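Propose amino acids for all 288 sites.
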């Protein structure tokens, strides 16, 4: 058996070797899904893949390359409410298992933001030391309770070397169990994994949207589920959002009892061990 991260060529190789294939996918990898309602992305490669399939005496696909994934088990590391299955995708081979990572200590059971959870967690939203003065004017009173995760070694080094961020903790990434115990809100760019991780950590999210089809969709779901608020630049000539506005929204979200209740509700939906559930589903699929 082959378990892979949604690579069509791996499915072809597995099928040619008569080996079962398990694809770890997001909603975008399910047959019929399109961000804009009319995407051609998954139809453009059908012809060359069909030539390869035919050369190996394997059944050809129709008009959607993602039909390859549907030939095996599809594991979605999310929940149906966040990654619903499109109407034309066969559902019997799609298994939602929840996030594949768990927090060793997810923080307060009810998602409460007590005095120990006074920090703000920034993930891939602060890279520019040129805006350090504005940033510190907005958040400097939090001191070491500011956690900036850059996701990139060079960016973290540049911010630390600028010596403009006081006691702010700046790292490539933080242990999310620590974040769950110390932060009351997150500021992210709306990535799929970061949205789910923030829910796991009981954190409402300010999504400083860096426009992309996936992040737009994630942001829509976060707002619809009452888990955060999306901020967009007000004008194309000023493609930044004032840090003072971000702070104001973060404080509002973290003090809103309905938002905290929403976060606690949806965190409960993500409470299972996604990796263990995935292993169980894969074992059943392979009759192990």
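Proposal:
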């Amino acid at each position: 058996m082959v378990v892979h991260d949604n690579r069509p060529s791996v499915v072809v190789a597995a099928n040619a070797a008569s080996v079962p294939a398990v694809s770890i996918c997001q909603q975008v990898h399910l047959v019929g899904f399109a961000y804009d309602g009319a995407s051609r992305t998954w139809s453009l490669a059908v012809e060359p893949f069909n030539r390869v399939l035919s050369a190996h005496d394997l059944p050809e696909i129709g008009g959607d390359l993602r039909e390859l994934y549907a030939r095996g088990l599809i594991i979605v590391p999310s929940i149906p409410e966040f990654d619903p299955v499109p109407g034309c995708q066969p559902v019997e081979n799609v298994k939602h298992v929840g996030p594949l990572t768990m927090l060793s200590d997810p923080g307060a059971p009810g998602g409460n933001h007590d005095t120990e959870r006074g920090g703000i967690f920034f993930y891939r939203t602060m890279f520019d030391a040129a805006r350090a003065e504005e940033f510190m004017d907005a958040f400097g009173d939090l001191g070491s309770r500011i956690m900036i995760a850059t996701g990139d070694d060079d960016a973290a080094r540049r911010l630390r070397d600028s010596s403009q961020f006081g006691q702010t903790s700046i790292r490539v990434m933080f242990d999310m169990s620590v974040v769950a115990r110390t932060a009351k809100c997150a500021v992210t760019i709306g990535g799929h994994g970061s949205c789910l991780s923030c829910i796991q950590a009981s954190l409402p999210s300010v999504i400083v949207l860096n426009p992309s089809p996936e992040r737009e969709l994630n942001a829509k779901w976060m707002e619809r589920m009452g888990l955060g608020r999306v901020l967009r630049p007000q004008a194309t000539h000023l493609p930044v959002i004032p840090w003072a506005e971000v702070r104001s929204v973060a404080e509002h979200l973290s003090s809103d009892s309905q938002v905290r209740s929403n976060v606690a509700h949806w965190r409960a939906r993500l409470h299972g061990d996604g990796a263990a559930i995935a292993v169980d589903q894969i074992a059943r699929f392979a009759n192990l």
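The radius of gyration is 21 Å. The longest strand covers residues 183-188.
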